[in-house]
Design goal:
The chain has 9 helices and 9 strands. It is an alpha+beta fold. The protein has 2 domains: 3-81, 434 Repressor (Amino-terminal Domain), CATH 1.10.260; 102-226, Ribbon (Umud Fragment, subunit A), CATH 2.10.109. Residues 11-67 form the HTH cro/C1-type domain.
């Protein structure tokens, strides 16, 4: 069987497994292609461009390698999602030195992240911040709401470290989880055969399960800050750039006078 045929069978199978069943039109809209183009991918009449293939990979949380080489119909989905080799390419933003920046997902655009999390252009549009003590990993900041995880409440941003695989998650740790329907900030209680059980630190709320197939991203808690206490500065603003440049020149002049 050719690689193109394997891919066609896999994406058709994955789409049909959705509850309720996902239509070709809906997945095509998400991938930003026409329904006619997507239909050709499912029938192996044409191969999707690389950016579309990556978008499919991120949507189903199945690596491009598995999509192209393994007949997914032969294996339970929960086992595939936990494979160590099932790594998903994450779009990130870097500075001029190639170092990762911490993207900040704003409150007003938090739901837009559900649609744009796999889009490099969307990620590039987010404001960023830097924290020198966070390294050796990929970090992103997300807004949280509600009172289920005290002392964190409305106005708090959770900084999370990206978790590549469900097998890397640890019970007892807290995670910012992106599902099909939105964000939750919870403590991991159990890892089950095909789901995870999460709980709130506020005992008023009940524990509940999240299916592996509904989980889009997981970010382990690494820190937090309050938008009411700290303003994220937009360094792309020309006024701010000018102020920083003036300050740098004044410091340079002072050093020259002292030397």
């Amino acid at each position: 069987m050719s690689t193109l045929s394997i891919l066609a069978d896999n994406i058709r199978y994955l789409r049909m497994q959705q509850t309720p069943e996902l239509t070709q039109s809906k997945i095509a809209e998400h991938l930003k292609v026409t329904r006619e183009s997507y239909a050709k991918y499912e029938t192996a009449k044409s191969a999707p461009p690389l950016d579309v293939l990556l978008a499919i990979s991120r949507y189903y949380h199945i690596s491009a390698d598995l999509l192209l080489t393994v007949d997914l119909r032969k294996y339970p989905m929960e086992e595939l999602l936990k494979l160590p080799d099932n790594r998903i390419i994450l779009p990130i933003k870097t500075d001029h030195r190639g170092e990762n920046k911490i993207e900040v997902v704003p409150y007003k655009a938090s739901m837009g992240y559900l649609a744009g999390h796999a889009d490099p252009e969307y990620i590039d549009s987010l404001q960023t911040m830097s924290l020198p003590f966070l390294h050796n990993g990929k970090y992103r900041a997300f807004p949280v709401e509600g009172d289920s995880m005290p002392p964190y409440k409305d106005g708090t941003y959770i900084i999370g470290k990206y978790v590549e695989s469900i097998t890397d998650m640890k019970t007892g740790k807290t995670y910012l989880l992106m599902t099909r329907t939105g964000f939750v900030f919870k403590r991991l209680d159990k890892i089950n055969q095909n789901s995870i059980t999460v709980k709130s630190d506020n005992t008023f709320y009940d524990n509940y399960d999240i299916l592996f197939t509904d989980l889009r991203e997981a970010w382990q808690y690494a820190g937090s800050f309050s938008s009411q206490e700290q303003e994220i500065i937009d360094f792309s603003n020309e006024d701010v750039k000018g102020m920083l440049l003036t300050l740098m020149n004044e410091i340079k002049d002072l050093k020259n006078k002292l030397s």
